Here is the input.
Amino acid sequence: MTKVAKIELEGQTHEFPIIEGSEGEKAIDISKLRGTTGHITLDNGFANTGSCRSAITFLNGEQGILRYRGYPIEQLSERSRFMEVSYLLGYGELPNTIQLKNYERKVANLATLPHGICKMLDHFPKNAHPMGVASSVTSALSSFYPDLLNPNLSDEDIDRCMAQMLAQTKIIISYFYRRTQGLDPIGSNPELGYAADFLNMMFAGGDYVTDPEISKALDVLLILHADHEQNCSASTVRVVGSSLANVFASVSGGINALWGQLHGGANQAVLEMLNEIKDGGGDHKKYIQKAKDKNDSFRLMGFGHRVYKSFDPRAKIIKGACDTILTRLGVKDPLLDIAKGLEEEALRDEYFKSRNLYPNVDFYSGIIYQALGIPTNMFTAMFVLGRIPGWLAQWKEMRTSDFTKIARPRQIYTGYTQREFIDLSNRN
Ligand code: ACO
Here is the structure.
């Protein structure tokens, strides 16, 4: 028997079905609420609103659980590679050896940019923010692939979109970085593996050699960022795509949503905050006080999460990776000590404890990126590199699901009621 929720409104009782997910998550299906009651729901920041049914990522914020297609993030980050995880997210199952090889070959064969896109990348100012560049160029790719603008894409076209975007994002980010350094871009060498190829495209030249341990560490970071269910940027990708806008427009929308410092932009903001604390003499307690002061707009960047209310499992893994990488590179970064000091102080503090504010994925990732030689303003673009397979999996699921409708929320109007127009000559 279907379980129902009863809502009593103006003396009448209305029943709505309860939907249960595979992990026991419960939702009241209010799709018919307005039609039957004339009411809508109002949910600031969609904190209680399920926008879709999804089989990609499961997250339990109370228990600090994150799984892609059922596999715990801890196991994936330790035992798989980013390309396997990309396949898993996009196709639902871990690939076998042949499937993985074919997938890698497909991505490798698409690892070039149209000449016009390279020209575009050549002409951005060197100090342009890489997120603005990445979103503009991703959107501009639509001009070069008219066959992928068709709203009725075949399965084959969807596969191509996913492989192509994975291949091209890596090139866009590294190409622009080399331009900012006055260096000639270099082509992809997929033989190296995704992360090592990216590092090579960024830094090759002089006596640079890709260190397998460093490439592995970057690969783990990419896995940790690969998907996170219906967050701000994934929801944006789905919202844009729900109008049947093309994949480039949808992903470009996701990149823009990620840019903000309450979302992916927090990794850049964390490093800027840590540097500010260091330059100010290292007094992290002052910043804890500022974060608690309701008259101060300052927030502890890299802390807090809409969904995680115990700990962010990704942050735990990244904190460990941070120590490993800094030791491997022989880097002693005072920012790491400041970050650890801030974390310890915050976790003891009643303000943070009572609000369940813990370090999130962005708190330690910037220290790693910095140790790898990646400039601060590129940190969020590194997040893009990791998140591409997740956005594409969400986009594919949205495009192929019978459940999808164009995203079109309602509102509670709070403006003027109807009033009479006043001619210009009669206005004060
Ligand atoms: N520093 C200080 N106080 C905070 C912080 C913080 N980082 N985060 C939340 N709070 C406080 C809020 O002021 C609020 O206090 P109140 O109840 O006294 O008003 C309470 O905790 C709840 O915060 P909300 O803003 O309502 O929580 P929400 O779920 O809307 O926001 C967010 C989540 C945006 C992540 C928030 O915690 C934040 O701004 N964090 C800093 C930015 C950040 O690190 N973003 C990255 C998130 S991870 C990602 O997107 C990849």
